Amino acid sequence: MAERPEALRWSAENCTLGRAMEIIGEKWSLLVLREVFLGIRRFEDLRVRTGIPRQVLTNRLATLVGHGLLRRHPYQEPGARSRDEYRLTEKGLDLYPVLVAILAWGDRYLADPDGSPIVVTHRECAAPVRVELRCAHGHEVPPRQVQTRPGPGVRPLSTPRAGRAG
Predict the structure, then answer these.
(1) Beta partners for residue 72, in sequence order
(2) Which of 22, 34, 26 lies closest to 101, judged by CA?
(3) Cα angle, residue 27 at apex, residues 36 and 92 outer, rounded to 5°
(4) Phi and psi (nearest 5°) for 78?
(5) DSSP string for residues in the chain
């Protein structure tokens, strides 16, 4: 009989991955972040570029602002009322490696035959940028060499539940 994963003994209720996905795990949220990372900050530009319905975009922007990933910055065109553009906060900027990793996965498995429509490069030397797993000692770590252990916030599973993931 196969040994059951140790993780089945831990509660997933306080899983930080689950909490993060509540904020960014919806398609439109990641597309909004993609556009803001590309420098597109104004509501109408975001709406037109992504095709997000107006109310959905309003809700996603409110969520991203409410969780501190974006901040509103007022601007005013001559003769028009004041409006807001959306800029990344430090918390939002910290998600850039996540988007680069998703992009790399998409490039590998989902790109058109001609390749990716965008390339991420280092501004100073133009070399391609990639996301790597590294341990604190600097070793590159392949995914199959990663292990997960209980952290300081782990809670034991009080009653077994089927289908819960964190």
Answers:
(1) 86
(2) 34
(3) 35
(4) -55, 130
(5) -PPPPGGGGB--TT-HHHHHHHHH-SHHHHHHHHHHHTT--BHHHHHHHH---HHHHHHHHHHHHHTTSEEEEEE--TTS--EEEEEE-HHHHTTHHHHHHHHHHHHHHT-BTTB-S---B-TTT-PBP----B-TTS-B--GGG------TT--B-SS--TT---
Residue 149 in this model has a pLDDT that exceeds 80 = yes
CATH number of 15-90: 1.10.10.10
Specify whether the CB–CB gap between 64 and 29 falls below 8 A.
yes
Task: Copy the structure tokens of residue 58.
Answer: 């309003």
Q: Which amino acid is at 55?
A: Q
Give me 43's structure tokens: 């509501």
**What pLDDT shows up at residue 3?**
87
Q: Which of 16, 35, 148, 151 is nearest to 43 (CA)?
A: 35
Note the pTM of the prediction, 2 decimals.
0.82
Domain with CATH 1.10.10.10 in the chain: 15-90
Residues 128, 119: contact at Cβ < 8 Å? yes
Residue type, 90: E
